[in-house]
Each structure stands twice: as structure tokens, then as C-alpha cells.
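Re: export button greyed out
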Amino acid sequence: MIKNFIEVSGLKKSFQTNHVLKDVSFTICKGSIFALLGSNGAGKTTVIKILSTLTKPDGGNATISGFDVVHQGDYVRECISLTGQFAAVDEVLTGRENLNLIGQLKRLPDVKSKVDEWLSFFNLEDAANRKVSTYSGGMRRRLDIAMSLMGSPQVLFLDEPTTGLDPQNRIAMWDLVKSLAAGGTTVFLTTQYLEEAEYLADSIAILHGGKILAEGTPQYLKEIMPQRGAQLNIQSERKAIEAMKLLNDNGIAVDSIEQNLPSLEEVFLTLIDEKKEGSNHE
Ligand SMILES: Nc1ncnc2c1ncn2[C@@H]1O[C@H](COP(=O)(O)OP(=O)(O)OP(=O)(O)O)[C@@H](O)[C@H]1O
Ligand SMILES: [Mg+2]
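Workaround output, generated via the alternate export path:
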């Protein structure tokens, strides 16, 4: 694996007085799945827009496969593909026409078989010849992702890929992301679903307050919080004892109780709380 296939260092971006990205740095290995986690408005889409050359940063730098996203945008665009947060499909065209159009724009050989392949993968065969204006939200989402995959990109940016998908299509999406990465595609996704990041990602970065609060494997993020973990454990022990007492008082016997590592959600919320406490003292 090329360790620093995507390298982001000290990225800054403000919109007037809104300092969205203050100092954002992380690296991503080739062929890995990276999840950028953050709440609404944290700046996830802004990071994706900078990396995909749609927006210029105010400071810092970022490279993909060694190419600078600001100064070598043409090279960067050749190796990436983006599925935005809001579907970029053309309403007036049919699903098939949308895919054909992308295939032609990218000058792909054998467009028709690629189009058929993705229509079938995303269960869109029956709707292929209908105008997209008649599609449901989930169908648009799937078509949008299929369009990004037409050119077999080296890096695929997926901005909240599973938002609006039903459980069955969400699982299909997860399988797809895993198989793309296994085939060497580097996948950069944003999500608000912690369990999604935990299940999919090789590494996760938590974006908050314009900075990366923590970065690492899901396992590492849980482990770097021994004190936090211990505090959570004490809290949950207390709750467990109270619960056992309550059950006992009501004549229900408890055989055993189990304690787990803090979930990523707990790690995330604790890091944000600490940050808030810290900033109160600034
Ligand atoms: N073009 C713009 N002009 C002004 N403000 C913007 C612009 N783009 C983004 N912002 C602001 O920057 C902040 C971060 O937006 P961004 O879309 O990156 O967040 P996000 O983490 O993707 O949120 P969400 O989870 O809601 O998608 C928000 O406060 C947003 O209003
Ligand atoms: Mg967003």
C-alpha cells in the first residue's frame, strides 16, 4: 500500500467570518477506505470539494497520487470520481441515458456493457428507460453512484453515500465499497452513521471545530481513550448495579452482566465534550 496516497496538511477554508476548516491534516493509504465523520456543518463536504478540485482552500495543501489539488487539478481530476451529497443526475434523461452520457464523456470503450453492468448491480434494470424525474430518492442515489463508477476511478469520493437508502440497498452499498477497495480503489466517504464508519473504514477521522479531533482505525479510536473508557465504564457499572438492584427488588434474578468497549459513538461524543470543556477555559 502506498502510505500517503492522499495527503492533506493544514487545510484552511473560511466563508466570510465562518472559519469552517482551521487546520485539517490527515493521510490516506492507497486502496483503503477512509471515513470522515462529523456532525452537520462540520465541514465534511467542504473537505471533499477541496480534494475534488471544486473549491480552493485558503491555506494548507493537499495532494492525491502526488498531484497538488490546486495547481495540478487536471491530473487530480483524471484519477478521481465524486458522488456528491445531492444527486447530480439529469432529470429529463432516463437512467440509461444518464449512464451513457457519462460513458461517452469519459470516452470509455464498450460503454453499453458497462451501462448494463451497473444498471444490473444497482437493481435499476426495470427503471432504466424511465425518466429520472420519476425515480424515488433511493433510485436517484443509486444511479448517481453508478455514474461515478463508470470510469473506474482510482479514488472515489462518496459524500454520505447511504443517506436515503433502505437497509437492503445500504448493505449492497457497503458490499460495493468493500469490493472496490479490495480491487485497489481508494474510497473516501463521509458519514454521520457511526456504525457505518466502524463497519467499513480502515481509518476514521473525526472533524469538529475546524480540526481533526482524532484519527485512526476504529479499534485505535476506542483504545486511545483509556481514561474516557474507564470513566464510561464506571458510569455504566453504576448503572448496571442500579439496574441489577431494581431487577432484584422486583423478583427478577440476574445471571450475568457484560461490559463492552465504548462504541465509536461514545468515543465521538466524549471527544466533542472534552473539546467543549477545553474551549471554555480558552
Ligand atoms: N459556498 C458556501 N458559502 C457559504 N458558506 C458555506 C458554503 N459552503 C459551505 N458553507 C458553510 O460551511 C459549513 C460547513 O459546510 P459543509 O457542507 O462542509 O458541512 P458538512 O459537514 O458537509 O455538513 P452536512 O453533514 O450537513 O452535510 C456550514 O456552516 C456551511 O453553511
Ligand atoms: Mg455535507
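Residues 6-222 form a domain with the Rossmann fold fold (CATH 3.40.50.300). The button fix ships in the next patch.
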